[in-house]
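Q: I'm writing up a methods section and want to include an example of the input and output format. Could you take the sequence below and give the corresponding predicted structure tokens, formatted cleanly so I can copy it straight into the document?
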Amino acid sequence: MLEGGCLCGGVRFRVTGKLGPAGYCHCKQCQRASGSAFAANAPARTTYFQITSGGDLVSEYESSPGKFRAFCRRCGSPIYSRRDTEPDIRRIRLGALDSDPGRRPLAHVWVSSKAPWHAIPCRSIPRALSPN
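A: Here is the clean output for your methods example:
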């Protein structure tokens, strides 16, 4: 089980199931919503996600048609996002978790929109996977 919350402590949540694959999203919307170069997210099934306190402080903003970003109305901390087309999934903001989620990001997405001041580190390709 994972627990998390917002900066002011007003919103608390729990994830009782496993998180899906984590990733770093570099799209402009995630940059603006996070105030950083990217957002670190991982999906959780809606049935495993529960707001345990401060539900009245959670507000949702429709950042694009059918995509909603949830945040604490008091401190502005991002909590999760959801899409109308995926009602069974909440994308949890990994920075809102209290402890290690047990997942490491598998990919950087929307890299074509990445912040010009951020360098994505390159990992060396293992020799076994190298073309030569």
